[in-house]
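Q: What would this chain look like folded?
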Amino acid sequence: MRSVSKTRISAAAQGVGIARAAYARTLSVLTRLHGPNLPDEHTFVLADLRGRILQGRLLLQAVARRADADPNISPGLIGIMKQACTDLGFHASVQATRILGPYGDLTVFGAERCLRDAKVTQIYDGTNEIQRLLIGRETVRAWKGLQ
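A: My prediction, written as structure tokens:
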């Protein structure tokens, strides 16, 4: 489980990195197209992504620190981090390609690559559906222990 935990932390880090890349590439393209005054609909999406990326980074760092301190870290906690961070990478990439409109699938801008790379992080090292099963089982065990 220790090696699986480390690879899941790595997958989560990739998810956050992909989200950051999708955000940065989208902001770069939009400012080239619109200058510093972006349309409100784009500004709202970017603001949401910025907050979610910060949350993902904080979750990743907190769980990674805990895993370094305790090699017997809960698989459910690792699963929460892996699932949340890789879902973040996919969500940010989908939003990036969506708000870029006809430019979203052009390889020159890179948002489409983020989308392709993000999807695979949700699959390897235990699919996010498996992570949800682990989290759910651990939650039920913890709940039974409280009663």
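The domain at 2-146 is CATH 1.20.140.10 (Butyryl-CoA Dehydrogenase, subunit A; domain 3).
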